[in-house]
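Protocol step 4 of 5: obtain the predicted structure for the target chain.
Materials: sequence only (see below). No template structures provided, no constraints applied. The aim of this step is simply to have a reference model before the mutagenesis design in step 5. Sequence pasted as it appears in the construct record:
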Amino acid sequence: MRTRPLLALAAAATAVLALAGCSSAASPSESASSAGDDVIRVGALTPGNANDGAFNQALADALARLQDEGLITYELREQMADPATSEPVVADFASQGFDMIIGHGIELGDAIFSVAGDYPDVDFTASGGLDILDRYTDNVETWTYDSSQVGYLSGYIAGLTGASPIGRVESMELDFVTATDRFFQQGVAAANPEASLLPVVYAGSFDDAEAAASATTGLIDQGAKLVYTTGDGIAAGVGAAASEAGVLSLGVSPAAGEEALATNVSTVDLDMYPIVKAWVEEARDDTFGGKGVTSTLENGGIVYQDINDVDGTIPADIASKVEELIAGLADGSVTIS
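Step 4 output (structure tokens):
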């Protein structure tokens, strides 16, 4: 499935990385010597698998693209959700002289901040919910994504399908997850006030596809005609169970496979390329630090996959209505609160 550019900003189209603990397309020394002194050496950590087709891979794809452009060399460590494992890796990157260390995921924030104070000449990034934005320091920039836009746009697409009732399978009952779900409900209501929603079900994990599949089956047994998820590893379970039952899904990543995607209407995704490129340019220009940044529709950090008509069962005007919504958000005629 292709990714739609939003507000004329193109999404990255890079290869899926099959990673096992540490990956880089070329060794740092080889790439740096061929590209010059301005190449930024990046160490990155993801909490889950970097070939998940969702949150973790968004960073992996951005890094691969920037390395192909000759702007960086990088090493990527995945499955770093445990602070006891991730903090030594962050410290090791810093002690080796990496220019920038990216902690991609709410699980990595403590490790980043614990190490960053000891290495004032190294640039770090930390991600989390809205509260992370005010935690920046001179050498730590913080990042989040606009959960209101992700949730509302996803809900709007779900409402436009006409499917009802709508089920939701989420990861864990965290603040940014519940906020996304709240805005999802608003989006559904804006597109289709007659649609009903079943109670949200939490899988208890970002990556437990089996638990997500079981939750999806339970919602389908309650009559759900569409099941939404915010992605990550659980999306594969949602997509598989929904496809098997012939029920629509929303939010399933390409990593789930063609069968799971067959009934997936669309997915609102992150594109980390614009954000990471800005960090790299700031590091190169010695202007990094002292701020927080948010991925949005407007800056190209949030994108959506082309609408899948699911064998002609989806209204043909959904794509145009989605573009109208995005334009309204951009010019202020549509507000989310």
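Step 4 remarks: Confidence is low (pLDDT under 50) at residues 1-35. Residues 175-191 form the longest helix (17 residues).
Proceed to step 5.
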